[in-house]
Amino acid sequence: MSVPPYGAADPGTPPPQSRVFATTALVVLALVVLAASGLLAWYLLTSGGERGDFEAAPECGIGRTEVLDEIVPDHRLEVEETVGTAQDTFGTGWQCRWATPEGEGASVPAAATLVLVAAPVEGGPDVASGTLSSTAQGHEPEPVDDLGDEALRWVETGAFEVGCTGVRVSNLYVETCYTAATDYEATGSVDGESAAEDAERLARSIVAELPEGTAAD
């Protein structure tokens, strides 16, 4: 799921538009992937399967961790939108984006996104697993140990490299993505692998805050 100008001479003097950045480079791609995985989700749901623990996805507030404060200094919540409807077989939840604010400031521009989607309780773990694999597909994902029930980390290349981590916890899909400029002029982004490491750190901090399953017995 993913949602990218300046000019300056002295790096010690932030340019007036230093934060307009390529945060418009962090386009939320996962929504397209979720919609595309609807047929698979329908098949998994109608085939039965394990019962999930989450009736609803947590809201964006769960993403405001110390790690977010560290990797996106002085962040502001720019996107807080619902994902999916009752008719979407992949489930429903939230997409969120934080970025350094526009205007002058001491921090190099950075942005992070968070997607939280709870698949339907019945058969939901299989659906969330399918969402994870389909989202990471094509990005040469690497497995991440000791994070949720299963997790993958990958890099999305482009004008700015974006690092992402996707996690399944029962029937809940959690995805974090992160990118940052290397300077106030946003002439380039941090290395994708480095961004993926920070996305993983953010994901771990969020998973640690998840409430215990909320699904009724």
Automatic annotation (TrEMBL):
Transmembrane segments: 20-45
Top-level taxon: Bacteria
UniProt region (Disordered), positions on chain: 126-146
UniProtKB keywords: Membrane, Transmembrane, Transmembrane helix
Descriptive protein name: DUF3558 domain-containing protein
Originating organism: Nocardiopsis alba
